[in-house]
Each structure stands twice: as structure tokens, then as C-alpha cells.
Amino acid sequence: MKRSAWDVYQEVLAKARELGLPGEEAEQARALLSLPQEAFTTLAKELRLKPKYLRHDLLPVAFLPQPLKEALRLGLPLRHAHRLYRLLKRGEIRLEELEGRPPEALRGLPYEEVELDPMSPVWIYPKDPRPEALSPAVARALVVLYTRPGELVVDPLAGYGTVVEAALSLGRRAWGGDIRPMGPRVEQADIKDLSRRFREEAALLFLHPPTFRSWLREEGYRESPEERYGAYVEYLQGLLEYALPALQQGGRLILAAQPRHSLSSTSQAAGRDFFLAPFERALAEVDPALKPIHHHQAVSREGRGSWHLFVAEFHGKREKAK
């Protein structure tokens, strides 16, 4: 099994202690770096490392800020840790942007600052390396279109917290929760508990559920995707039902989805519909007072990713909270 960079770094620190080097890890790293060339080469050989890798990649870990060390421990590739440190020293990112973020989020920093025209029929956004992440530019366009300053934006499946950060930067109030938060502005919270936290308060309710492929993998289904697609739409409707009590009268709900782009021959023969319609039905059938009003399409600049954003507006009677 391949050793992670963090594990190898710990082996180097253990070797420094074995050699009796005093001080904290930064002092120990300086001592190792100051070894004569022959002694340093021997040390690298004992650790089963190339001398250049030990000198230029591994020992400099001792001088990284704590958020990057923690991210390395959690799996951030070493090259990204050094890249982010260079950006930090050049002032292109701030230390606060690194704190509390998981490796998946750090790999995407810094985000390319792009402003989209909210009225454009298709939004073209820059590549984002974070898995299934909504582009910050798309999040800002949605907040601008569907809220006013001071209004509350709620995202109970916030993930990295992109929508929350966009809303706060535009002068809105915002809250984000997720059972597995991946950003510093996201609380650990279950969408099932949302109605106990917010009741008819959100001007914008944003739902960014797992994609169909991720949901299939997480649920561990072994049947063909075609046999499970209906269950996925039901799953989406369940999320909507949990979240809807948080939405105020006249508030907007946005469902972010990645519909399938192609069908198998089995699905075609069965006449099944797997494109946009299931997502529109998920919105329309969960509550008659939830009326679909808009649909936006966002496509990544390199053409490999896309999001369909379905917007509905709520006007209807509420059941009294129990």
C-alpha cells in the first residue's frame, strides 16, 4: 500500500527524534536540512526516499501553517499544500480561507473570480475541481436574481458552503447545514430537523442534493440505474418536503440537479423519460402551492460539467406547526 505524504513525513519526524535532534518539528527540519550532503543522502536512503524529494518537498512541510498540515493529514496531495502555501505567501489567498476546509475544498482554491450576467440564457462558469460543487459565480447569480439585501438564504445541503458564502458576500443573511459539512460556514445538521430551526423565514431555499450517480453509490443499489431512477426522484421529493416549511410566502426554492445526458437502449425501448421532466415533477408534485417559474442552465467552460437549476415559488396555506 502506498504511503501518504503525511505518513512519510511522520516517519521523517520519528527519525529526527531517533537521532536525538532537539526542539519542535521546524527546528528538527532545519537541522536535517543542514546536514552535510553525504549524511543527508544516507538519511534519505534509510527512509527509502529520493534526496531531492526529502529536501524540497517533504521537510518543508514543517514550515506550513497548521490548516495545511491538518489538510495533509486528511489526504490533501502534497503538491496542493505547497501550491497553496506559495499563494499564501504572495498574498493571493488569506489564511482564513484555509481554516476549517476539507482537502476537497482546498484543492479548488483559489476560485477564479468571474461575474456572470444573471439574464444570460446559459451561464458559462470556470472549471471547479471540487467534486459536484456549484460554481461560486453561479451561486452569486442566483442570489442576485432571487433575493434582496437583508433577506435570508437557507441551504440545508450546503456541502462546501458556496451558496452561503455568496449570499453573505452580497449582503444577505445566510445559513448552511449538512450532515457532512465541508466548509467553515456550514454547520453539521440534518435536513430532517430544518423545520425546527426555521419556519417560514427563508426568502430563498436552495437544495443541492447528491447527483443520481452519487446517490446510487451511497445507497449501494445494485440494480440498473433505470430501475432506480424513480426512487431517486422520490428521494428528491422527500428532501423538498423536509425543507419546504422553512420557506416564507412568496419565497423561491431552487433545486440544483445534473440530469442524465444519454439513455441506454433499455430505457429507450421502455419509453422512459430521464431528462428534465423528473426534476420538474419533483418540484410540482410535492406541494400544489409550489409553482415552477424558471429554469437556468449552467455549463463549465471546458464543457465537462453542467447544472440545471429549477426555480419554484411558494404561495399557499400552511398547516399549523405541531
TrEMBL record:
<keyword id="KW-0808">Transferase</keyword>
<feature type="domain" description="DNA methylase N-4/N-6">
    <location>
        <begin position="133"/>
        <end position="180"/>
    </location>
</feature>
<protein>
    <submittedName>
        <fullName>DNA methylase</fullName>
    </submittedName>
</protein>
<dbReference type="GO" id="GO:0032259">
    <property type="term" value="P:methylation"/>
</dbReference>
<dbReference type="GO" id="GO:0008170">
    <property type="term" value="F:N-methyltransferase activity"/>
</dbReference>
<dbReference type="InterPro" id="IPR029063">
    <property type="entry name" value="SAM-dependent_MTases_sf"/>
</dbReference>
<dbReference type="Pfam" id="PF01555">
    <property type="entry name" value="N6_N4_Mtase"/>
</dbReference>
<dbReference type="GO" id="GO:0003677">
    <property type="term" value="F:DNA binding"/>
</dbReference>
<keyword id="KW-0489">Methyltransferase</keyword>
<dbReference type="InterPro" id="IPR002941">
    <property type="entry name" value="DNA_methylase_N4/N6"/>
</dbReference>
